[in-house]
Design brief:
Distance between the termini: 64 Å
Shape: globular
Structural class: alpha/beta
Number of strands: 22
Largest sheet: 9 strands, mixed
Bound molecules: ligand LLP
Radius of gyration: 23 Å
Strand content: 15-25%
Helix content: 25-40%
Length: 425
C-alpha cells in the first residue's frame, strides 16, 4: 500500500520537469500526467488476476496505451470508449488466457455500441436485462457478464453511489433467474459477474459486497469463470485521507473467490476495475494566475482554468490539493485565498465545499503571471471537460523519463465550432 504523501503548497516541477517550462512550451491550462505514477499504481494491484482500467477516468489514447503496455486491460462504457480502446491497440475477442481485452460495461446499448460490440466481438457486461435480449437478437451464443446491483451501495458523494434502489446501475439482485432465462433463450452463457458499488468504498462495506457476490455466483452456477470487484478504490486528495488497505482488500475478494472455486469446482479469475486509482494522482492541471483581487475581506486568485476543465469541485465539492509556482526566490507569506476560474458563473470556484459553499485555502502569496497547479486532477479531470463559455478543451502532456510529450493538442477555435452551420438562407 502506498504511503500518503504531504501536499506542499509550493512547487516548481512535475516529475523533474520545470512547470514554468511546460507552461511556456504548451501554454495553459494544460493537464500534465506523470506516467511513472500510473505505472506504480498498476504495480500496486498486481495481485489481482486482471486489472481492467475504467477509462472513463482518463481516456486519452496515450494513457490507454501506457496501461496496455503495462499489462492492463480496459473497460469501455460507450461506443466512443470502444473506439479509443481499439485506437490504443486493444483488441476484441478473448486472449489465450481467457481474458477479454475490452469489456463493454453499460446499462444500455445504443445502436453504435451494439454494432461495435458485435463487429469486434467485444465481451458485454450487461447492466439491464434488456441488454441480454438486444445482444441475443443479433448474436447467438455469446458469453456475457452481468453487472449486479446487490441492493445496497456506497460512494464519496450521493452522485457516485451506484448501489441500492435509487441507483439506475446494474441488474437488481432478485432478477438473476430472469436473466438466466433470457440468456438461455438466446444460447448465451453467463460467464462473469460484476459489482461496482460506488466510488470511495471502505473495507467494512466490502465484506458485505463479497458476501453478495458469493450468493449471486451460487445462483448463476458453474458457468462463472470471472468475478469483478468493480472500481472505487479511493486515493487521498489531502493528508487526512488514506488509501484503502490493498492487502486486506485483495484478501477479502480472494477468500470469496477461493470459497466459490471449491464449491463450484472450476477456477475463477478475479478482476479489479479501477479508474481513479490508476490516473488521479498522476495528473496536474497547470494554470496561470491572471488576476489577484480583493472582494471585501476575501482575496481571489483567478486562474485561466475553470470548471470547464475541472468540474469535480463544482459538481461534488471535491477538494483538490493546490500549489503555487513562484517565479522567484523572494520570501512568500501564506495568505488565505479563494481560487476561481474565468467562467461567467459564480460557482466557478475550485475551493468550494459540497453545496457550493466557498472556502479559503492557505497558499503562498502569488502574483499575476505565476502558475498555480490543481493536483490529483488525472481522474475525472480532462474527460469531464466541456466547451462552456466557448473555452477550448485544454492540452494534455505526459511526462516519460523526464521528457514532456504532447498527448493532446489544445483545441483550436476552428475545432470549437466544427460542425456548426450558418443557415443557408
Ligand atoms: N467501474 C464502473 C462500472 C464504474 O461505474 C466506475 C465509475 C468505475 C469502475 C471506476 O470507479 P473509480 O475507481 O474511478 O472510483 N466523476 C466522479 C466519479 C464517477 C464514477 C463513475 N463510475 C468523480 O469525479 O469522482
Amino acid at each position: 500500500m502506498p504511503t500518503v504523501g504531504s501536499f506542499p503548497t509550493s512547487r516548481h516541477d512535475i516529475a523533474g520537469v520545470s512547470i514554468a517550462e511546460i507552461a511556456q512550451q504548451f501554454s495553459t491550462p494544460t493537464f500534465v500526467y506523470d506516467s511513472a505514477v500510473i505505472v506504480e499504481r498498476i504495480e500496486d494491484l498486481k495481485s489481482f488476476d486482471v486489472i481492467r482500467y475504467a477509462q472513463k477516468a482518463c481516456s486519452n489514447i496515450a494513457i490507454l496505451d501506457l496501461a496496455r503496455r503495462n499489462g492492463v486491460v480496459v473497460d469501455a462504457v460507450s461506443a466512443g470508449e470502444i473506439h479509443r480502446a481499439l485506437r490504443a491497440g486493444y483488441q476484441g475477442g478473448t486472449n489465450a488466457d481467457g481474458t477479454h481485452e475490452i469489456v463493454y460495461t453499460a446499462d444500455i446499448f445504443d445502436q453504435d455500441a451494439l454494432d461495435l460490440a458485435v463487429e469486434h466481438d467485444i465481451h458485454v457486461n450487461c447492466g439491464s436485462p434488456d441488454m441480454i435480449d438486444q445482444l441475443g437478437a443479433v448474436k447467438r451464443g455469446a458469453e456475457i457478464t452481468l453487472r449486479l446491483n446487490p441492493g445496497f451501495g456506497h460512494g464519496h458523494s450521493q452522485k457516485t453511489n451506484t448501489g441500492g434502489q435509487q441507483s439506475k446501475h446494474g441488474i437488481w439482485y432478485e432478477q438473476i433467474e430472469d436473466c438466466k432465462q433470457r440468456a438461455a433463450n438466446h444460447g448465451i452463457t453467463i460467464t462473469g459477474l460484476h459489482m461496482h458499488i460506488g466510488s470511495g468504498t471502505d473495507l467494512e462495506h466490502l465484506a458485505q459486497v463479497c458476501g453478495a457476490m458469493e450468493q449471486a455466483v451460487r445462483e448463476v452456477g458453474n458457468t462463472i469463470t470471472t468475478i469483478s470487484a468493480g472500481g472505487g478504490l479511493p486515493v487521498p486528495y489531502n493528508s487526512d485521507q488514506s488509501y484503502v488497505d490493498l492487502d486486506k482488500y485483495f484478501t477479502l475478494w480472494d477468500q470469496s473467490r477461493k470459497k466459490l472455486e471449491a464449491e463450484l469446482g472450476n477456477s475463477i479469475k478475479l478482476e479489479i476495475e479501477p479508474g481513479r486509482y490508476l490516473s488521479a494522482e498522476s495528473g496536474n492541471l497547470v494554470t496561470e494566475i491572471r488576476a489577484v483581487k480583493k472582494m471585501g475581506e476575501n482575496i481571489f486568485y483567478l486562474v485561466d482554468a475553470g470548471f470547464n476543465n475541472l468540474a469535480r469541485p463544482i459538481m461534488y465539492g471535491s477538494y483538490h490539493p493546490i500549489s503555487v509556482v513562484a517565479a522567484d526566490d523572494s520570501p512568500r507569506e501564506d495568505v488565505e485565498v479563494v481560487v476561481g476560474g474565468p467562467l461567467c458563473e459564480s460557482g466557478d470556484i475550485f475551493t468550494q465545499e459540497e453545496g457550493g459553499f466557498v472556502s479559503k485555502r492557505s497558499l503562498p502569496q502569488a502574483n499575476v503571471g505565476e502558475y498555480l497547479v490543481l493536483e490529483c486532477a488525472g481522474a475525472y479531470g480532462s474527460v469531464m471537460g466541456s466547451n462552456y463559455n466557448s473555452k477550448p478543451l485544454a492540452a494534455e502532456v505526459m511526462i516519460v523519463d523526464g521528457l514532456a510529450h504532447l498527448i493532446r493538442e489544445r483545441q483550436s477555435y476552428d475545432d470549437l465550432m466544427r460542425g456548426e452551420r450558418l443557415l443557408d438562407t
